[in-house]
Amino acid sequence: MNEPHWPNDERPRERLLAHGAESLSDAELLAIFLRTGTAGMPVMAMARHLIEEFSSLRGLMTASRRQFCQVKGLGTAKYAQVQAAMEMARRVMDEPLRQGDPLRSPADTRRFLTSRLATYPHEVFAGLFLDNRHRVIQYRELFRGTIDGAAVYPREVVRQALEDNAAAVIFAHNHPSGVAEPSQADISLTRRLKEALGLVDIRVLDHMVIGHGEVISLAERGLM
Questions:
Q1: pTM greater than 0.85
Q2: CA neighbours within 13 Å on the CB side: how many for 195?
Q3: Which residue, 142, 86, 134, 136, is CA-closest to 114?
Q4: For 106-155, how does the pLDDT look when each residue is reduced to its tens digit (9 = 90+)?
Q5: How far apart are CA 50 and CA 72, in angstroms?
Q6: If DSSP codes are grouped into helix, strand and coil, which group holds residue 200?
């Protein structure tokens, strides 16, 4: 396959090799991923156009298959590439919290939950179930949709925790708006779950709200 031709002043691959990936702009990283442009649109121009079309690199990477494939120059093959790249990134982020490993730090927990939840276009409520030494038993996505008292059922959470033989749990959910600030409903739900699980001697260690580049811990805020 022919290598893409870069103008002399736009060679992001060479800049990456010389200065590291972190030195590149979003458009330059995307251009390396796309490799080629379309008729009448060089790859760098196409990368800039796509980021503008989807409002951000994140918007492009998390677009639905329909949204992604209806854009000229993209298609199912590139959509599959994006999904594979994102899943590889998630698995790398998951390494510190593999099943059976103890929680090493709050930072590891935040990175893991962010890698799992931050890119969903809808709200997902999840639990990280732990044994009495805070080793990971299982990560489970429990509920989807609007997270409020009507959508999350404490009875089902207790049943799952008992089935997993958990001694403790860390809850998390995402805010697709990107704003991680917990709502009053989040705080109320956390307290209800803590009370329900306390009846069967399972501790709720935290509830983290995942935004875009931000994670807020209700435990650290003293809201539990």
A1: no
A2: 7
A3: 86
A4: 888 888 898 888 888 788 999 999 999 888 899 999 998 765 544 788 99
A5: 10
A6: coil
